[in-house]
Protein backbone atom coordinates (compact mmCIF):
# COMPACT_ATOMS: atom_id res chain seq x y z
CA UNK A 1 0.00 0.00 0.00
CA UNK A 2 2.75 2.43 0.80
CA UNK A 3 5.49 3.35 -1.59
CA UNK A 4 8.94 1.87 -1.34
CA UNK A 5 10.59 4.84 0.27
CA UNK A 6 8.17 4.80 3.17
CA UNK A 7 8.02 8.59 3.12
CA UNK A 8 4.48 9.81 2.84
CA UNK A 9 3.70 13.14 1.24
CA UNK A 10 0.17 14.12 2.16
CA UNK A 11 0.03 16.61 -0.68
CA UNK A 12 -3.47 15.65 -1.71
CA UNK A 13 -5.15 16.49 1.55
CA UNK A 14 -6.22 20.13 1.46
CA UNK A 15 -6.41 20.62 5.19
CA UNK A 16 -3.03 19.06 5.77
CA UNK A 17 -1.33 21.27 3.25
CA UNK A 18 0.95 24.04 4.27
CA UNK A 19 1.18 27.02 4.30
CA UNK A 20 -0.12 30.30 5.63
CA UNK A 21 0.43 33.36 3.44
CA UNK A 22 4.10 34.27 3.26
CA UNK A 23 3.19 37.76 4.32
CA UNK A 24 1.60 36.59 7.56
CA UNK A 25 4.19 34.21 8.97
CA UNK A 26 7.69 33.02 8.34
CA UNK A 27 7.88 29.59 6.76
CA UNK A 28 9.38 26.82 8.83
CA UNK A 29 12.32 24.97 7.37
CA UNK A 30 10.17 21.89 6.72
CA UNK A 31 7.40 23.85 5.04
CA UNK A 32 9.94 25.71 2.94
CA UNK A 33 11.31 22.42 1.64
CA UNK A 34 7.83 21.22 0.72
CA UNK A 35 6.71 24.46 -0.91
CA UNK A 36 10.00 25.05 -2.72
CA UNK A 37 9.63 21.66 -4.41
CA UNK A 38 6.27 22.71 -5.79
CA UNK A 39 7.52 26.10 -6.97
CA UNK A 40 10.53 24.44 -8.53
CA UNK A 41 8.25 22.09 -10.45
CA UNK A 42 6.63 25.14 -12.05
CA UNK A 43 10.00 26.84 -12.52
CA UNK A 44 10.63 25.50 -15.99
CA UNK A 45 8.92 27.10 -19.00
CA UNK A 46 8.06 23.83 -20.74
CA UNK A 47 6.77 22.27 -17.54
CA UNK A 48 4.73 25.36 -16.77
CA UNK A 49 3.21 25.30 -20.25
CA UNK A 50 2.33 21.63 -19.91
CA UNK A 51 0.77 22.35 -16.55
CA UNK A 52 -1.22 25.27 -17.98
CA UNK A 53 -2.40 23.08 -20.85
CA UNK A 54 -3.83 20.56 -18.40
CA UNK A 55 -5.18 23.24 -16.08
CA UNK A 56 -6.95 25.14 -18.85
CA UNK A 57 -8.56 22.05 -20.38
CA UNK A 58 -12.24 21.51 -19.53
CA UNK A 59 -12.51 20.30 -15.95
CA UNK A 60 -8.75 20.48 -15.53
CA UNK A 61 -8.11 17.19 -17.26
CA UNK A 62 -6.30 16.44 -20.51
CA UNK A 63 -5.21 13.45 -22.48
CA UNK A 64 -1.46 13.35 -22.87
CA UNK A 65 -2.16 13.05 -26.59
CA UNK A 66 -3.58 16.61 -26.57
CA UNK A 67 -0.78 18.43 -24.77
CA UNK A 68 2.39 17.34 -26.50
CA UNK A 69 2.84 20.35 -28.77
CA UNK A 70 5.37 22.14 -26.62
CA UNK A 71 8.39 21.72 -28.86
CA UNK A 72 10.12 18.90 -27.03
CA UNK A 73 10.22 15.15 -27.53
CA UNK A 74 7.57 12.84 -26.18
CA UNK A 75 9.97 11.31 -23.59
CA UNK A 76 10.79 14.81 -22.39
CA UNK A 77 7.10 15.58 -22.07
CA UNK A 78 6.70 12.40 -20.00
CA UNK A 79 9.65 13.38 -17.84
CA UNK A 80 8.17 16.81 -17.13
CA UNK A 81 4.73 15.40 -16.39
CA UNK A 82 6.28 12.96 -13.93
CA UNK A 83 7.94 15.84 -12.07
CA UNK A 84 4.59 17.60 -11.80
CA UNK A 85 3.05 14.38 -10.49
CA UNK A 86 5.85 13.83 -8.00
CA UNK A 87 5.08 17.06 -6.19
CA UNK A 88 1.35 16.48 -6.27
CA UNK A 89 0.38 19.15 -8.81
CA UNK A 90 -0.99 16.56 -11.23
CA UNK A 91 -2.52 13.14 -10.96
CA UNK A 92 -2.81 10.68 -13.83
CA UNK A 93 -4.99 7.81 -14.88
CA UNK A 94 -4.65 5.40 -17.77
CA UNK A 95 -7.81 4.78 -19.78
CA UNK A 96 -7.32 2.42 -22.66
CA UNK A 97 -4.49 3.63 -24.86
CA UNK A 98 -3.96 7.01 -23.27
CA UNK A 99 -2.95 8.53 -19.98
CA UNK A 100 -5.06 11.42 -18.72
CA UNK A 101 -3.62 14.12 -16.50
CA UNK A 102 -5.62 16.12 -14.04
CA UNK A 103 -4.71 19.08 -11.88
CA UNK A 104 -4.97 18.75 -8.14
CA UNK A 105 -7.03 21.82 -7.22
CA UNK A 106 -6.19 21.70 -3.52
CA UNK A 107 -2.47 21.89 -4.21
CA UNK A 108 -2.93 24.75 -6.62
CA UNK A 109 -5.12 26.54 -4.07
CA UNK A 110 -2.52 26.04 -1.35
CA UNK A 111 0.19 27.56 -3.52
CA UNK A 112 -2.03 30.49 -4.42
CA UNK A 113 -2.90 31.03 -0.76
CA UNK A 114 0.75 30.99 0.24
CA UNK A 115 1.45 33.81 -2.19
CA UNK A 116 -1.65 35.75 -1.31
CA UNK A 117 -1.24 38.97 0.63
CA UNK A 118 -4.58 38.54 2.36
CA UNK A 119 -6.45 41.80 2.44
CA UNK A 120 -3.54 43.96 1.29
CA UNK B 1 -0.55 52.80 -24.07
CA UNK B 2 -1.45 49.17 -24.29
CA UNK B 3 1.15 46.49 -24.38
CA UNK B 4 -0.84 43.48 -25.39
CA UNK B 5 1.98 42.19 -27.53
CA UNK B 6 4.88 43.98 -25.94
CA UNK B 7 8.24 42.32 -25.56
CA UNK B 8 9.31 44.24 -22.49
CA UNK B 9 9.25 42.73 -19.02
CA UNK B 10 7.33 45.24 -16.94
CA UNK B 11 7.50 43.10 -13.84
CA UNK B 12 6.95 45.97 -11.47
CA UNK B 13 3.78 47.31 -13.05
CA UNK B 14 0.80 45.50 -11.58
CA UNK B 15 -1.59 46.04 -14.45
CA UNK B 16 0.93 45.04 -17.07
CA UNK B 17 1.86 41.79 -15.37
CA UNK B 18 0.94 38.50 -16.83
CA UNK B 19 -0.89 36.18 -16.42
CA UNK B 20 -4.47 35.02 -16.35
CA UNK B 21 -5.24 32.07 -14.09
CA UNK B 22 -3.68 28.89 -15.43
CA UNK B 23 -7.09 27.27 -15.24
CA UNK B 24 -8.67 29.84 -17.56
CA UNK B 25 -6.21 30.01 -20.42
CA UNK B 26 -3.12 28.32 -21.72
CA UNK B 27 0.07 30.29 -21.12
CA UNK B 28 1.86 31.64 -24.15
CA UNK B 29 5.46 30.63 -24.59
CA UNK B 30 6.65 34.14 -23.67
CA UNK B 31 4.49 34.32 -20.55
CA UNK B 32 5.63 30.84 -19.52
CA UNK B 33 9.26 31.96 -19.68
CA UNK B 34 8.52 35.00 -17.54
CA UNK B 35 6.41 33.17 -14.95
CA UNK B 36 8.71 30.15 -14.77
CA UNK B 37 11.58 32.43 -13.82
CA UNK B 38 9.58 33.72 -10.87
CA UNK B 39 8.52 30.26 -9.75
CA UNK B 40 12.08 29.05 -10.10
CA UNK B 41 13.27 31.88 -7.87
CA UNK B 42 11.00 30.52 -5.13
CA UNK B 43 11.97 26.93 -5.92
CA UNK B 44 14.83 26.75 -3.47
CA UNK B 45 14.14 26.19 0.25
CA UNK B 46 16.67 28.72 1.50
CA UNK B 47 15.55 31.34 -1.00
CA UNK B 48 11.92 30.73 -0.12
CA UNK B 49 12.69 31.11 3.58
CA UNK B 50 14.54 34.35 2.95
CA UNK B 51 11.62 35.58 0.90
CA UNK B 52 9.15 34.62 3.62
CA UNK B 53 11.29 36.40 6.20
CA UNK B 54 11.08 39.63 4.24
CA UNK B 55 7.41 39.13 3.38
CA UNK B 56 6.38 38.45 6.98
CA UNK B 57 8.27 41.43 8.41
CA UNK B 58 6.16 44.48 9.25
CA UNK B 59 5.20 46.24 6.03
CA UNK B 60 7.02 43.60 3.98
CA UNK B 61 10.43 45.14 4.54
CA UNK B 62 13.45 43.78 6.39
CA UNK B 63 17.03 44.74 7.00
CA UNK B 64 19.40 42.17 5.60
CA UNK B 65 20.90 42.11 9.09
CA UNK B 66 17.66 40.60 10.42
CA UNK B 67 17.18 37.76 7.95
CA UNK B 68 20.52 36.02 7.79
CA UNK B 69 19.75 33.15 10.14
CA UNK B 70 18.99 30.57 7.48
CA UNK B 71 22.01 28.37 7.97
CA UNK B 72 24.09 29.54 5.04
CA UNK B 73 26.96 32.00 4.68
CA UNK B 74 26.39 35.71 4.24
CA UNK B 75 27.62 35.66 0.62
CA UNK B 76 25.16 32.87 -0.11
CA UNK B 77 22.37 34.92 1.45
CA UNK B 78 23.36 37.83 -0.80
CA UNK B 79 23.40 35.55 -3.82
CA UNK B 80 19.89 34.30 -3.08
CA UNK B 81 18.56 37.80 -2.44
CA UNK B 82 19.98 38.93 -5.77
CA UNK B 83 18.10 36.15 -7.56
CA UNK B 84 14.88 37.25 -5.93
CA UNK B 85 15.60 40.83 -6.99
CA UNK B 86 16.44 39.80 -10.54
CA UNK B 87 12.95 38.41 -11.11
CA UNK B 88 11.27 41.37 -9.46
CA UNK B 89 10.06 39.65 -6.28
CA UNK B 90 12.16 41.91 -4.08
CA UNK B 91 13.51 45.41 -4.28
CA UNK B 92 16.32 46.77 -2.16
CA UNK B 93 17.54 50.07 -0.80
CA UNK B 94 20.69 50.94 1.05
CA UNK B 95 20.24 53.15 4.12
CA UNK B 96 23.45 53.89 5.92
CA UNK B 97 25.23 50.66 6.76
CA UNK B 98 22.49 48.23 5.83
CA UNK B 99 20.53 47.14 2.83
CA UNK B 100 16.78 46.81 3.27
CA UNK B 101 14.73 44.38 1.22
CA UNK B 102 11.10 44.83 0.40
CA UNK B 103 8.61 42.56 -1.30
CA UNK B 104 6.99 43.71 -4.51
CA UNK B 105 3.30 43.14 -3.73
CA UNK B 106 2.16 43.39 -7.35
CA UNK B 107 4.46 40.57 -8.42
CA UNK B 108 3.34 38.39 -5.55
CA UNK B 109 -0.28 39.15 -6.39
CA UNK B 110 0.27 38.27 -10.04
CA UNK B 111 1.78 34.92 -9.10
CA UNK B 112 -1.07 34.20 -6.72
CA UNK B 113 -3.62 35.15 -9.39
CA UNK B 114 -1.97 32.88 -11.93
CA UNK B 115 -2.39 29.93 -9.58
CA UNK B 116 -5.88 30.88 -8.55
CA UNK B 117 -8.73 28.72 -9.75
CA UNK B 118 -11.13 31.62 -9.74
CA UNK B 119 -14.53 30.57 -8.47
CA UNK B 120 -13.94 26.83 -8.80
UniProtKB/TrEMBL annotation, chains A, B:
Keyword Lyase set for record: no
Q: Which domain of life is it from?
A: Bacteria
Q: Which UniProt keywords apply?
A: DNA-binding, Transcription, Transcription regulation
Q: Does the keyword Glycoprotein apply?
A: no
The record, for SMART domains, names: HTH_ARSR
Give the HTH arsR-type domain ranges.
27-120
The record, for SUPFAM superfamilies, names:
Winged helix' DNA-binding domain
Name the chain's protein: ArsR family transcriptional regulator
Q: Tell me the lineage of the source organism.
A: Bacteria, Bacillati, Actinomycetota, Actinomycetes, Kitasatosporales
Amino acid sequence: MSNSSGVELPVLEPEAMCCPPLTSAELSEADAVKMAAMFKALGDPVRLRLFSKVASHPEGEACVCDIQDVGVSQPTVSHHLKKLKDVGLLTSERRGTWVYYRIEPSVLAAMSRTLDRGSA
